[in-house]
């Protein structure tokens, strides 16, 4: 509900549109990213930190660097996944982002603390 409104074709959508690190394309962060991050690892001791980092994803992801491309195994709509990492020196941790690429573009899909 707090996501900014952006134009998506002829329609408006609630999402962030950010630059993809090392690429000229945009990456979109929508509600599904936050739902995916919040639904996993609820019993993890770093769960609150994970939620805090998810709220900052639109600021952190553009600072990340590309690591590898992975084939999609469980997402039929995905062409592939790009994996990025960001070293957060202030917190002393590495954040891994997965960007799902499909026919509609690239969407931030998941975030993990390494």
Quick synopsis:
This protein has 114 residues and is of the alpha+beta class. Helices cover 19% and strands 44% of the residues. The strands form two sheets. It has a six-stranded mixed sheet. Strands 1-2 form a two-stranded antiparallel sheet.
Could you give the topology of this structure?
Layout (H helix, E strand, L loop, with lengths): L4 E4 L2 E4 L1 E4 L6 E4 L1 H9 L7 H9 L1 H4 L4 E6 L9 E9 L4 E10 L2 E9 L1
Parallel strand pairs: 4-8
Antiparallel strand pairs: 1-2, 3-4, 5-6, 6-7, 7-8
What attributes does this structure have?
114 residues, alpha+beta, two-stranded antiparallel ribbon, globular
Model description:
With 114 residues, the protein is α+β, with helices and mostly antiparallel strands. The protein contains 3 helices and 8 strands. It has helices at 31-39, 47-55, 57-60; strands spanning 5-8, 11-14, 16-19, 26-29, 65-70, 80-88, 93-102, 105-113. The chain has a 6-stranded mixed β-sheet with strand order 3-4-8-7-6-5. The protein has a two-stranded antiparallel ribbon with strand order 1-2. A hairpin with a 2-residue loop joins strand 7 and strand 8. Helix 1 (31-39) packs antiparallel against helix 2. The model has no long low-confidence stretch (mean pLDDT 88).
